[in-house]
Amino acid sequence: MDSAVEPENLPVPVLRAEQLCYRYSGGQEALCGVDLDVGHGRRIALVGANGAGKTTLLLHLNGTLKPTSGTLFVDGEPVGYDRLWLRRLRETVGVVLQNPDDQLFAGAVYQDVSFGPLNLELDEDEVRERVEQALEALDIADLRHRPTHMLSYGQKKRVAIAGAVAMRPKVLILDEPMAGLDPSGAWHLLGLLRRLNDAGTSLVVATHDMSFAYEWAQEVAILSGGVMVAQGPPRGLMTDPAELAHYGLRIPWIVEVSELLTECALLPADAMPRTRDELGTVLRAHLVAGRTSNRLDSAC
After folding, report:
1. Cα–Cα dist 250/149, whole Å
2. H or E stretch covering 113
3. I want to staple 12 with a disulfide (CB 3.0 to 4.6 A). Which of 29, 53, 76, 277 is the partner?
């Protein structure tokens, strides 16, 4: 019999929020006892209805906001909020806001992307290397000298992400990254996220797109009314319509389609595809098996 893994032997998350509470100056409670673990190299989708507290939580994870109570941990160490700790936290955790105009402030693209690395007091060659790599990764190297006010919305989004990527954080947090992007821009961004994750970067994405969360994430965290109601695998948390409706959410389209196909006996009852490709593979295999079975029955 395998021995049980002791809790102290479990990997320490790169980032952990423990019982975070936050009240705005007017007294409104935005977060209430929120727990969140971000493991090394994990992909986490943060979902919740408008007003659930998603953006407020994200701004705690890089120290932009300080909790009223509770603790944030980086690699197992509780975060302080002095100058040195905030610098370490922002080296570890990069945040990309939903509206890029809230994040871009320099006159030109190169200046904006270089701002973070320069604040780390890196030497000039290191800053240049980081900025060039970030520009290439976002496919915006040709925009390096473009004034930021002359960029399209999608270009601004990519510049904001490049600025975060140039910091080389262990955790990259993105608030509604697909919002406002055309299909080509969204596809390009998904490719970038995949490459960053393959290189070991943990990703936390706040999104209203339940289908994206179901297909993309290794873990889903559901926030409702400032409370973290669940964190776990998508298949365990995103297939109950009534439960999700209680939190103002809908099940992903692929779950709805799969259930309909199962009711029509076109999909095995135990099939739980998470992507369009998986659905097509399982459906084709089931239909081929059914036709083969029918031919055998006719021959007998």
Report:
1. 37
2. helix 109-119
3. 76
CA dist 135 and 108 (Å) reads 13
Beta-bridge partners for 220:
45, 232
Of the two residues 222 and 296, the one the predictor is more confident about is: 222
Write the pLDDT tens digit of every residue in 166-200: 999 999 999 999 888 888 888 888 898 999 999 99
pLDDT tens digits along 265-282: 888 888 888 888 888 898
Domain ranges in the chain are 12-105+169-250, 252-300
pLDDT at residue 141 is higher than 70: yes
Interatomic CA distance for residues 120 and 116, integer angstroms: 7
CA distances from 123 to 83, 114, 135, 136, 177 (A): 21, 12, 19, 20, 31
Q: Contact at 8 Å (CB) between 220 and 237?
A: yes
**Contact by Cβ (8 Å): 117, 126:** yes
Retrieve residue 182's tokens: 């055309």
Euclidean distance between the first and the last CA atom of the chain, given in angstroms as a whole number: 47
Q: How far apart are CA 150 and CA 192, in angstroms?
A: 24
Q: How far is CA 267 from the centre of its chain?
A: 30
Cα 159 to Cα 96, 112, 181, 221: the distances in Å are 10, 8, 13, 27
Write down the architecture of domain 12-105+169-250 according to CATH. 3-Layer(aba) Sandwich (3.40)
Distance CA(208)–CA(210), nearest Å, equals 6
The confidence band for 291, taking pLDDT boundaries of 50, 70 and 90, is: low
> Phi and psi of 172, rounded to 5°?
-115, 125
